[in-house]
Amino acid sequence: MPAYSAKDDALTTKLVTFYEHKKDSSVPSHQATILLFDPRNGSLKAVMDGSVITAKRTAAVSAIATKFLMPAHSEVLCILGAGVQAYSHYEVFTEQFSFKEVRIWNRTKENALKFARSVKGPVQVCSSAQEAVTGADVIITVTMATKPILFGEWIKPGAHINAVGASRPDWRELDDEVMKKSVLYVDSREAALNESGDVILSRAEIFAELGEVVKGTKPALPEKTTVFKSLGIAIEDTVAAKLVYDSWSAGN
Questions:
Q1: Angle, to 10 degrees, between the axis of helix 84-96 and the axis of helix 109-118?
Q2: For 12-39, what is each residue's pLDDT tens digit?
Q3: Which residues of 153-164 are buried (b: 16+ CB within 10 A; e: fewer)?
Q4: HSE of 130 in the Cβ direction (CA atoms, 13 Å)?
Q5: How many whole angstroms separate alpha carbon 119 and alpha carbon 114?
């Protein structure tokens, strides 16, 4: 995943491996390394842990989408999944927003209980996805699901959903009802139309890219039920890696 930012004077590429690790859950499914280059001459400046940067920048982008799209006076946050992205999203969302209640569901309940014990604040472990979702204002899906685990009939009208998993064209997290009854935002139209099973298989219409909302060329519609489909784009890694590098350089 190569990218160049003239504004940040940064050139990077990210190398990613993906394994499901069905038997060895101690190893993350996604592992990554980011190479940071000097854009003036191509020399290598740093080799960085891409897994941490990926987790944090993905959660940060979801938080930006949520800032624009969540309903007013949101009180209940729901997280479906208990892996690396669940932890990073919890950290960012509880820092940036003031939810009164946080719920989590995971297909393996033991992992959800471990999550609840590990994080700083109180988390309600739910026995089903439906229980976790019902009445939630903001929903985050960060699972390894290949078939829908979130259904439109469960969702509170006006809720906002950050759909982070299902990054392959034949994988789903959200059912057709969610996709077609929601206003759909994406990080990249091109990526969503080629990589997101939720978008491709539902044939849902993309309303806007998140960047268009941030720039003000397309409206945020927090009064509607909204979905932000996150796939991740390389420039996010570039900007985040340069931020980390500059912070490290300043300290040395």
A1: 40
A2: 999 999 887 666 567 777 889 999 999 9
A3: ebbbebbbbbbb
A4: 4
A5: 9
Calculate Rg over the CA atoms of the chain. 18
Distance CA 137, CA 157 (A): 9
Provide CB contacts within 8 A for 248, sequence distance 6+.
none
Provide the whole-model pTM: 0.93
SS (H, E, C) the chain: CEEEECCCCEEEEEEEEECCCCCCCCCCCEEEEEEEECCCCCCEEEEEEHHHHHHHHHHHHHHHHHHHHCCCCCCEEEEECCCHHHHHHHHHHHHHCCCCEEEEECCCHHHHHHHHHHCCCCCEECCCHHHHHCCCCEEEECCCCCCCCECHHHCCCCCEEEECCCCCCCCCCECHHHHHHCEEEECCHHHHHHHCHHHHHHCCCEEEEHHHHHHCCCCCCCCCCEEEECCCCHHHHHHHHHHHHHHHHHHC
Side-chain-side CA neighbours of 23 within 13 Å: the count stands at: 0
